[in-house]
Amino acid sequence: MQMFERIYGNEMNKNILKKVVETERFSHAYLFAGPKGTQKRDAALEFAKAILCIEKNSKPCGLCSQCLKVQKGNHPDIHEIKTGAEGDSIKISQVRQLQKSAATKPYEGDKKIFIVNSCETMGVPGQNAILKILEEPEEGTIILLIANSKSSILPTILSRCQILNFMPLRYTEFLNVVEAKGITDINEIKFLYQITQGRMGEALKALEDPGKIDIYKSISSSMDSISKGEFDKIFQIPALAKDKGINELELTDYLLVYLRQRLVEKTVYKENSDIDYLTVGKINDIIEGIMELQSNTKINLNMPLQIENLLLRIQEE
């Protein structure tokens, strides 16, 4: 088994981490940053497995006791912090528990690894607690921070991390990966690329669960109707998402995909219909509003209402 064989694209990041494992010159902290669905957590877990692998040559071997424990999610020297649900934040209590665990020695080797997901959702107290660990790291402690965005992370944390920026795949890369998985219909591949924007993690989920593609089609159909003047359907969008079993943050992701695709159609392909209230200016305005909404998950907002208010801008003169 080769390291990162199930991580697609982002070759520079993979080569950097492979070199680190080969030379065993580990930093105390790494930040895996990039859009949702770019396999950051998968890469962090693979890196952690390689660090703990006891095979002398090809790491991770995938067969030793350490690799098997990582794969099963029960390695005592890997501690992972996650939010309770999408849209939630990392709590200060979770970070304080991490501080306590970091002060103890590893159980099975000489390394202890902490993986902090969604670290951009931490408030300032939580980030300061993380910073204290980074400023005074225990020997053998490695912290892997994972974030969809670096913008809300303290500069003092960023300066103490080796930063790896993960990007979506280009279409040609995406095409090769999906074709290798047995998908040969070029229109299906183009549609999958459109709704995932080249984020391979999201594409793999969609391939495993075709229902995600159906959800996008439903939302896309409603948005097409809204852009043609059926403004009453604006109030049906949050209800549609709830009916399909997706939360408000996921809904904003689907809306961003739709809006960006419409922007490409209007600005690149110059596609315009006789009746279309969704102008380029309104698209940019709503995209900006959605991105601001996504960055304010720490604030207790009425998300369905906020989404409706953003979409109501379509009917404005």
Automatic annotation (TrEMBL):
Annotated GO molecular function terms are: 3'-5' exonuclease activity; DNA-directed DNA polymerase activity
What SUPFAM superfamilies does the annotation carry? P-loop containing nucleoside triphosphate hydrolases
| One Pfam family here | DNA_pol3_delta2
**GO biological process per UniProt:** DNA-templated DNA replication
Which NCBIfam families does the annotation name? holB
Q: Which PANTHER family match?
A: DNA POLYMERASE III SUBUNIT DELTA (PTHR11669:SF8), REPLICATION FACTOR C / DNA POLYMERASE III GAMMA-TAU SUBUNIT (PTHR11669)
- Its recorded name reads DNA polymerase-3 subunit delta
- Organism of provenance: Alkalibacter saccharofermentans DSM 14828
